[in-house]
Write a structure and sequence with these properties.
Length: about 220
């Protein structure tokens, strides 16, 4: 079951650029590369810098795609959306930017490295690529109008069915994961209700200090 698509978050099989993945005439340009096309002023956040770079390169749909990616990563507790784990698609021959790349490489999610006792919606999590805390990064989402959380009703039972029979996930861990995922959805629902009455202004506070791939020894950027 593709839970992200149920909640209207586009994945590799459901975006306008999906058919371009793997084509010999296209190439993935990571966010890290995009952000090297212009110097980031010290007072500008990583989030704003990425958006500005994309706009200067004529890449459309950036704000909406970031909103969707941030929501997905919040829900699945993704800890490794570093700057090489998202980006855009470019024509390899003409160097024309074709659009936002589908979401990919979300494996470091759902408390993948946590022992049973640490599985939970409020467990300390690494956050990337813009803010060091998930509760701050979710504030960057400009609109939740596209999101229908009611489509995720009953996700715990469906998730449990998927995990049943796994050689690596016993009954206790399965139950904890399902409960934590449902709680994460409820937390997002609360955030959406509150954010409808607030206007968030982004700044460099809580920005990630550096971009790096996941490491089991990483202790920075914990919420």
């Amino acid at each position: 079951m593709n839970y992200a698509s149920k909640a209207d978050v586009p994945l590799a099989a459901s975006t306008p650029t999906a058919h371009l993945i793997g084509s010999p005439n296209t190439e993935l340009m990571t966010a890290w590369y995009i952000m090297q096309t212009a110097q980031k002023p010290n007072h500008v956040s990583v989030y704003q810098h990425y958006k500005v770079c994309c706009e200067q390169l004529g890449i459309s749909g950036i704000s909406d795609s970031i909103d969707q990616m941030i929501v997905l990563d919040y829900l699945i507790a993704n800890e490794d959306r570093h700057q090489n784990n998202f980006g855009v698609i470019r024509n390899a021959n003409t160097l024309e930017y074709l659009g936002v790349a589908p979401v990919y490489d979300s494996g470091s999610s759902l408390w993948f490295s946590k022992p049973l006792s640490m599985i939970g919606s409020r467990t300390k999590l690494v956050c990337k690529p813009f803010k060091s805390k998930h509760e701050e990064q979710i504030k960057l989402v400009k609109s939740f109008d596209w999101l229908d959380l009611s489509k995720l009703k009953g996700i715990g039972d469906e998730f449990a069915d998927i995990l049943t029979g796994s050689l690596f996930i016993d009954a206790a861990r399965k139950g904890a994961l399902c409960k934590a995922l449902e709680k994460r959805i409820n937390m997002l629902e609360d955030i959406i209700g509150k954010q409808n009455h607030l206007y968030h202004i982004d700044n460099i506070l809580d920005d990630v200090s550096k971009d790096q791939a996941y490491s089991s020894t990483t202790t920075n950027n914990l919420v």
